[in-house]
Design brief:
This protein has about 190 residues and is α/β, with parallel strands linked by helices. The protein has helices spanning about 1-20, 25-40, 50-65, 80-90, 100-105, 120-135, 165-185; strands at about 45, 75, 110-115, 135-145, 155-160. The chain has one domain: Glucose-6-phosphate isomerase like protein, domain 1 (Rossmann fold), CATH 3.40.50.10490. About 55% of the residues lie in helices and about 15% in strands. The protein is globular, with a radius of gyration of 16 Å.
């Protein structure tokens, strides 16, 4: 069992280099969020499964605080309103749970932050198409090559791994770094 744990930790450590190689993308994402917020834009975050939990985590860090006192930032996880999710899923199908919310809420200049470890989640891809049509800034967090999501994004972090657990571990590190950068700027 100890060998299993050592292998997992070693794999995790290798993924750090993949994120380190994308520090410019993290900086670009941070600047895009800062610019949107300073222009009265909002941030909408979504994904399925563990990525849904990450979307909620990101929104909580931005609305509440990460480490310092500052004003709350307008961030919403589109994964939290069970009435919306269930009514949209029932009336239109699961593939539209994010699309319909993006259509209803997003304005030009807002940030849409899509998480998909494969980069191929159909409901995420469709929502991003709607966001692009609305002239939102699209941020993607994916794994491996970025799948279908990457070319649809203005900025995309692609963790170089196929396994969702490793990808999500690096996503968490990356979004914490972004939240820190945004908060430092906003808090002055």
């Amino acid at each position: 069992m100890k060998e299993l744990f050592q292998a997992g930790i070693a794999d995790h450590a290798r993924m750090l280099d993949g994120v380190r190689e994308q520090l410019g993308i993290l900086a670009d994402i941070s600047r895009a969020i800062i610019t949107a917020v300073e222009d009265n834009g909002r941030i909408f975050i979504f994904g399925n499964g563990g990525s849904a939990a990450d979307a909620q985590h990101i929104a909580a860090e931005l609305v509440g605080r990460y480490k310092r006192e500052r004003r709350g930032l307008p961030a919403t996880a589109l994964t939290t309103d069970s009435s919306n999710l269930l009514s949209i899923g029932n009336d239109y199908g699961f593939g539209h749970i994010f699309t319909r919310q993006v259509e209803a809420l997003v304005r030009a200049g807002d940030v849409v932050w899509a998480l998909s470890t494969s980069g191929n989640s159909p409901n995420v891809i469709e929502a991003v198409h709607v966001a692009r049509a609305l002239q939102a800034i699209v941020i993607g967090f994916t794994g491996a090559s970025g799948g279908k999501l990457k070319p649809l994004c203005d900025y995309c972090l692609c963790v170089p791994h196929q396994d969702s657990d490793r990808v999500q571990e690096m996503h968490q590190l990356a979004y914490h770094l972004i939240c820190d950068a945004v908060e430092r700027h906003i808090a002055g």
